[in-house]
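Query structure, 402 tokens:
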């Protein structure tokens, strides 16, 4: 399951125009069967009432559990705060291998919804629990998202967010005085912190890769959108520090580890979620080059997944986003009320991108439009037409026979 956070049709088109031209095609465009996904969440107090502007917590909960929830919730029910079993947990219980890969903090909403249950997405580390008293281990809950990850037994966990795992569990909680990283280590995880460590990792023990303290670095940089428009500009590419793996590197290694023969040479099959997180995060701050670069990181990872599926044709590959976002293509010379930047594309033409959902360049918002889903492999034809995000849970469940 390949996710672009904030990957709407607009973000795909902006990246395509810039990187390969309007008539070019990305790896994202090679995934053959396409449909549209509705992404709304529901109200916490009135779960039958839609909220047309979701965040990444209910959207990831939708494909992870098959159920709608309210903004900010991680795989728990709106209003009643009951845990919802996730696809990853079902796969793990059935003996499949499981992996969770992201360029954000591993405790951020999208990866969290696959593997954790908590009432508020902000409760990422043991010192971030003020909004989640009922989820504390001392209250009989599962603890912060970092503690839940450390306890998960997930075969491959890769991303940023090391600072959450270095927080010291406070007095009165189980494992007080230790960190989630130490508890993960005690429960058998191999921990790696850079690209070389990831390359050296071997199958057989669960792997926790935490490559940065916070979100992982973006790969491209450039001028932010402004009023009047910045540019015309050409983006600076390949800016990621060499000790951080790319999303494609992480995807390649995750597939190798999940597919490695186990006892008796048996390959049990697997579920893997891969997220390019900062398409969203750089959209929020009106940074077109950074947004495009993170879309291209996803595109490279999708290429890895498609190559894997070509060699292993019983693989279902699903590509989608979680919600639409703010960036829009507007006329090259148009004056717009928001913030904008002009980019010189692969066509040699000028594309103006506007950010118009916030009153400051760093305060842009998600949008509520339906977004693309694309798939190939077993069950892929079920994404055709207009589906809801919750349908993805059932499609993947059937494909994995869970
Ligand atoms: Mg995300
Ligand atoms: Zn966002």
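Result returned for the query:
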């Amino acid at each position: 399951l390949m996710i672009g956070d904030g990957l709407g049709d607009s973000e795909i088109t902006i990246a395509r125009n810039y990187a390969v031209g309007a008539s070019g095609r990305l790896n994202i465009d090679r995934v053959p069967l396409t449909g549209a996904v509705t992404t709304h969440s529901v109200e916490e107090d009135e779960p039958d009432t839609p909220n047309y502007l979701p965040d990444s917590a209910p959207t990831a909960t939708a494909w992870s559990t098959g159920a709608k929830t309210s903004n900010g919730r991680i795989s728990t029910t709106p209003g009643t705060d009951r845990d919802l079993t996730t696809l990853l947990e079902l796969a793990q219980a059935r003996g499949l291998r499981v992996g969770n890969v992201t360029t954000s903090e591993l405790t951020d909403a999208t990866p969290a919804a696959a593997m954790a249950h908590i009432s508020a997405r902000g409760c990422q580390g043991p010192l971030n629990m003020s909004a989640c008293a009922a989820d504390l281990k001392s209250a009989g809950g599962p603890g912060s998202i970092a503690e839940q990850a450390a306890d998960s037994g997930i075969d491959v966990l890769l991303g940023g967010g090391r600072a959450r795992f270095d927080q010291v569990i406070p007095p009165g909680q189980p494992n007080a005085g230790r960190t989630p990283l130490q508890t993960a280590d005690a429960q058998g995880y191999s921990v790696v912190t850079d690209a070389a460590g990831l390359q050296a990792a071997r199958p057989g023990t669960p792997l926790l890769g935490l490559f940065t303290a916070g979100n992982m670095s973006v790969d491209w940089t450039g001028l932010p959108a402004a009023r009047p428009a910045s540019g015309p500009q050409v983006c600076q590419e390949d800016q990621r520090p060499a000790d951080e793996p790319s999303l494609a590197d992480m995807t390649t290694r995750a597939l190798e580890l999940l597919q490695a023969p186990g006892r008796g040479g048996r390959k049990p099959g697997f579920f893997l979620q891969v997220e390019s997180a900062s398409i969203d995060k750089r959209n929020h701050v009106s940074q077109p080059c950074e947004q495009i670069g993170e879309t291209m990181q996803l595109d490279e990872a999708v290429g890895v997944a498609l190559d894997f599926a070509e060699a292993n044709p019983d693989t279902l590959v699903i590509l989608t986003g979680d919600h639409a976002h703010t960036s829009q293509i507007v006329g090259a010379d148009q004056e717009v009320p928001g913030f904008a930047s002009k980019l010189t594309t692969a066509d040699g033409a000028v594309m103006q991108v506007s950010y118009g959902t916030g009153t400051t360049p760093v305060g842009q918002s998600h949008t509520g439009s339906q977004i693309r889903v694309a798939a190939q492999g077993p069950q892929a034809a079920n994404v055709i037409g207009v589906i809801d995000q919750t349908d993805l849970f059932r499609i993947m469940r059937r494909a994995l026979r869970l």
